[in-house]
Automatic annotation (TrEMBL):
UniProt GO molecular function: phosphatidylserine binding
Gene (name only): Havcr1
Every Ig-like domain range: 3-135
Classification lineage: Eukaryota, Metazoa, Chordata, Craniata, Vertebrata
One Pfam family cited in the UniProt record for this chain: V-set
Protein name: HAVR1 protein
Annotated organism of origin: Hippolais icterina (icterine warbler)
Transmembrane segments: 209-230
Gene3D superfamilies according to UniProt: Immunoglobulins (2.60.40.10)
SUPFAM superfamilies: Immunoglobulin (SSF48726)
Protein location: Membrane
Amino acid sequence: MLPYICLSWALLVLFTGSTVSEFVVKGEAGQDVTVPCHYHVRNKNAITSMCWGRDRCPNSKCSRPIIWTDGWRVTEQHSSRYQLKGDLQKGDVSLTIVNATEADSGIYCCRVELPGWFNDQLINHKVVINKARISTARPHTYTSEQTSAPGSTSESSSTVTRTWPPVSASEAPQTAPTPSSGPSDCLDVASNLQNTSVSLPSQQHPERGLYIGIGSCAALLLILVLALFLT
């Protein structure tokens, strides 16, 4: 009876093995992702070896091992992207994946080798690396483009139009008193001459047309006065 009980216990321990814990770790591509793993260190004699593997923890060792440590230093390293940045002598054997990628997603096994049969500490981690977040904000680019036709200049030409005020009767040159019929006719003639000089194509020199009109008016007035005196 006793041998049967011992055999049953041995088979139960062999097939069940150590208790395995499972956790989920999420990260983002392009960043460092830390997969936690710790064990209790009572004294220096409790410092022990451990390994990380890319698969679930088997009955012994690590499947597809990526890094090993004897408890004091790293003894084997599959890639420089896998690092143990924690204090090994204090039981911090967390795995850091440098510049993680989506291909790093999967199951990772942390196996701490403790003394005795089936006493190893086993932790399975499911690592999920998501795509990097893309910012929707776009940088604003301000460009100023100025084009001009060949042979032209960038300065625009401006045309200045001057409007000369009409000359009133009070501003006209004073002459000797004449009968009532003469000055009104002269003023009409001067007004007509002024309007004609303004409408001429030679508007580039309006002062010259104005002087000609005033001179013509004065000449007509003089002729009228002489004619009146003669008659």
